[in-house]
Amino acid sequence: MLAQSYHAEYAWVDGGVVRDVRIDVADGRITAVTPDSPPPPGATRLAGLTLPGFANAHSHAFHRALRGRAQGRGTFWSWRERMYALAGRLDPDQYHALARATYAEMALAGVTCVGEFHYLHHPPDGASYDDPNEMAHTLVAAAAEAGIRITLLDTLYLTSTVDGGELVGPQRRFGDTSVDAWADRVARLAVPSHARVGVAAHSVRAVPAPLLPEVVAVAAGRPLHVHLSEQPAENEACLARYGRTPTQVLAEAGALGPATTAVHATHLSDVDITLLGGSRTTVCLCPTTERDLGDGIGPARALADAGCPLALGSDSHAVIDMCEEARAVELDERLRSQQRGHFAVADLVDAATRRGHAALGWTDAGSIAVGARADLVTVRLDTVRTAGYDDPVAAVLFAATAADVTDVMVDGRPIVHNGRHQLVEDVPGALASAIKAVWK
Ligand code: ZN
């Protein structure tokens, strides 16, 4: 049995901040949490605020290669053309290097588990690799090398338009020939213990409504994710085709519920919000991507009031900073309403930790509690951004950045120590070389 003790200056326990917390860990699990405790002999000191591990519930790892390129101009649709150009280039080795570096960046930001919404399945001609799951296995291996857990959300992507247009250009890499072919491939996806398999329907645009019940059957209670109403154009096309909103289409297909996560949920009607909340569908907000792409501000407060658990994702990785995603949920509501105080800080921490892990199928992660997976993220309170605080969690949620994360533990294993990744030597260098190789 591998046992270790930690002593946190402050820790987030049971929805609040407590001081001088002894945290005992054995075999990857938390075995004791003792506030107001003197440091035990041999304990590792965690200076700052220690939070449960962050879950990044929505990622497309390859989009990291778009950062700092064409961000200053264009529309969602011109960005998508650039993304397709990137998607058309990646081979498995390039993707491996890029995902490993991107997941290492996530670890440095305190992410202990990622939900990879994976649709880059096949070679550019749309055929199949010798191992039809080669790209998925590449992503799972990259997460292991970066020291984080992954839920591989294997994504069904069949059509280019809501009217059933065939896949063209780089989209051919995304598509399986049928729901059955996709389900067969997913069934053959075997993953090690740091990984889990979930499924996704890319969107109501890419999966025809009559096929959605089959997707629900394949999911069989595993996490089921779907992009929902990110752009008004998606709603308009869906209404024209089906006479219903995307949310209504999903509801009628039986695709909403506690195992489902709707990603974005930006442009919703009141009926949509009632359907999502009443079914206890999780909504994964991706505020830094939604702002970067000019998507709009999702109705986060109304969704939470209706009954939706909220999770967070960095999606296109315009930045990877879960503190920034969390604070944006509150701050975007302030901009819209011209009022402050929509979410308690506990709700924002919950979205970044427990709710996100649950949306990815890891219901035993995301809290500092006995029996939970030993995922710990320590954020310094003496940096230029956080110094002078009165309320440690407010300092972290409203002012800290990923650069203030010093120590990260995943399943009891130290992955980041003193701000340095313990498995990937030079993360900026790994990112730069992986991205250079893709675009050369
Ligand atoms: Zn996405």
Q: Please count the beta strands (DSSP E, at least 2 residues each).
A: 16
Described by strand count, sense and barrel closure, the largest sheet is: 8 strands, mixed
Distance between the termini: 48 Å
Secondary structure category? alpha/beta
Kindly report the oligomeric state of this protein.
single chain
Rounded radius of gyration (Å)? 21 Å
User: Kindly state the mean pLDDT as a whole number?
Assistant: 97
What is the percentage of strand-forming residues? 15-25%
Heteromolecules bound: zinc ion
Low-confidence stretches: none
- Measured as a percent range, the helix fraction is 25-40%
What is the overall silhouette?
Answer: globular
**Helix count, DSSP H or I runs of 4 or more residues:** 15
Strand order within the widest beta sheet: 3-2-1-4-13-14-15-16
Walkthrough of the structure:
This protein has 440 residues and is an alpha/beta fold. 34% of the residues lie in helices and 23% in strands. The chain has an eight-stranded mixed β-sheet. An eight-stranded parallel β-sheet has the order 5-6-7-8-9-10-11-12. Helix 3 links the parallel strand 6 and strand 7. Helix 2 runs parallel beside helix 3. The longest helix is centred in the N-terminal third of the chain and has 17 residues. The site of zinc ion has 6 residues, from loops.
